[in-house]
Amino acid sequence: MPVMVLVVLSIWGGVYPFGPESFLTEDLKYQYIDFFTRFRHVLTGEANVFYSFAQGMGSNTWGLYSYYLASPFNLIILLFDEAHLTLAIYVIVALKLACMNTAMAWYLRRRFTLQRTWALALALCYTWSTWTATNLRNPLWLDALILLPLMAWGCRQLLRKGAIVPLALLVAADVITCWYMAYITLLFCCLFVLFELAVMRFDEGERPSGKWIAGRAARFTAAILLGLGLSAWTFAPTIFAMMGGSSSNSNASFLLTGPWGVAKGFLPFYWQLNGVPQFYTGLIPLLLSVSLLFHRDVDKKLRTRIFAFAALLVMSSVLSPFMFVWCGFRQPTGFYCRIAFLLSFLEIWAAAYLLMRRTEVHPAHLENAQTPWHEANAQRRHLNPTIRALVPFGALALVVVDLGLNAHMCWNQLYVNYPQETHDTYVSAVDAQMKELGELDADAFYRVDKTYNRTGAAFNEGISHGFNQLSTYSSANNPKAVAFLNALGYSSEGEFSSVYAASNLVMDSLLGVRYMGSWTQPVASNATGIAGSTIVSPVYVNPYALSLGLPCDSDRIASRLPEGSNPFERQNDLFAQITGIDEPLYTNLQTAASTSDATQITWNVELPANTIGYVYVQTGVESNWSKSVSLLIDDQIIAQEGTRFSHNVRSFGTATDERTSHTIRVLPSAANVFLPGETTCAIYALNVEVFKRGIEQLRAGQFVPQEFSDGYVSGTYRAEEPTGLLLSIPYDKGWTVTVDGVKSDLSPVFGGGMSMLEVTEGTHEIEMAYRSPGLRGGLIVTCVSAVLCAAIRLIHRRKN
Question: Which of 172, 357, 388, 739 is least enclosed, having the fewest CB within 10 Å?
Fold first, then answer.
């Protein structure tokens, strides 16, 4: 049934594979399709599951796997070639929807002894709630909704029978498939087990003692810990991979939507992208759950607790401090109503509970024929059998129509303006360019990046197309590398991603960015002969790009990030530390603005001879989309700066023998909008002579690896004297380094954004291999937990 709804919606909305609009919407096209492509490379032995150089200089990819790709359903992609991965994702989503429906129907039948048709109707409400209909764009989250009903049953069994192992196994499965959603669902289970305890007390007439409650609390804690132990083989390396990360800069308001927006969230056809929470779970569960709150046959204290639980979940979805807690004490960026599915679950629970009270004999009273419940239900069974049989089928039909129409309205906002043919054409064009580039340059190491993207925010193309880039847009990247890149002018400081929106000659050269895809030729670059088209730009070469390792005096290199108030001052500090050149690389050209008010700021700049001008917008509220500004250079619009995906140093002018004049202007990003009060620009001139001298000095002693692949580096290096070898690889404890077969240590420098290796005079064989930290220890913990799990199960069976 849920798969049939998916197919009908796809045909109705013209969504691939039944129409032209791609199933890849929002983060599915921005991120996940690239992650799925790389995962297929891992499964076929073409990529390393532990590490990739294709994101942000390099990153431990175990966190990428355990957050986005660990679902066992994803193994289905092996049945599809890369040209049909969108279809593979569609099939995966369809199977997950079917399993969600089956799991919830099973839970409703076991927990509430509902008739099969009623269970199917309510399960369909759970499966096709507004939250699910709008979050098929996040298939990695759907596994948690399969496991949630089963975990709720595990909580119930733990309370009634003291069973630890079933809940522990479900917790392990939850963490293994997606640790992020596991955190949310485990937090919910901590509340839900207390809720079920209240049901036992106020509804089923049980009065557990304090000792009994303490014992069950200990068992619940043991189940959670045992589940974490069983998942330690993946959870432990995930912790190491994600350690040190932070959420994006956020200016989220206290209330994420207004009161009317909250109210509309409970109604069909009113969902609005980023404006209305996804609370709607269907007309039938809404009416039944509201009726339960006023049902006099239900204990008033229980009704109060149901209402309080629901109110907490509503507040958690729309109040940013609550959401902050539910999202692991990290302020989420996008998908602001992430936990609304928990309210949907509670609503289904309340609806099923009321149906049980009205149509079924309550399980707690099966042996007591004199209870009021039994007598009332016996009277209901004397109703016309035909009517009693048809009502559930009518409810099921209403659910299909109700939620089908609602989902279609939601899809009209999501699956638009991105044809699957456009995606396939772009992917083929990039693959062709990268193949041509590989034939042009066979060196083991160089980086490639682009000043544009596939669509909107697709900055992970390197991991799917096989090139090493600085850009990275993921919740599982190397935070030290991102902080390093952004501090030096690639994106806003504090942002969790880094975007190569413009060439940055100095840093590109030091970090080995040899090739650039750009619609306009980057400053100081040359043509490669790799032509562009209407969908991909030409590729240019940076003749100053260096290789992986740079010789330097390790005593000059600081462990902290370069110092300075803006990217140019930090680049000055970085360049001086690496090269030892005392002359400033950049010179401040800042002059008083000739025009400055709330509508525009203008600077007239004289660029000295033999320099290249650079400008960096500073608004004081970086990464706040609503505070972006328009940057114009010589009356040409360069970019909308200060946004999440466009906040970079921008060049102007070229190195000539004469001074040149330029106009820098900053305007509001839209009409009827004023500039942020702290808006200014850092305007500097790059001394080309100093830059070239430093590059030639470093090139003379650089380390050029003979092999450079994900998780592995090797090569021969000759040092004329004892020196520090600065590697443009972010520091990570997972690297094992040997020099001439002897184990050596890497040191973190520049805040861990780069690494340092000490080498002695002479010729050396350097080899580096990567393995995610925590994997071995996690495997040991998992094995011990499995033995404990078996022992607990055996003891429990003997006692029973």
Answer: 388
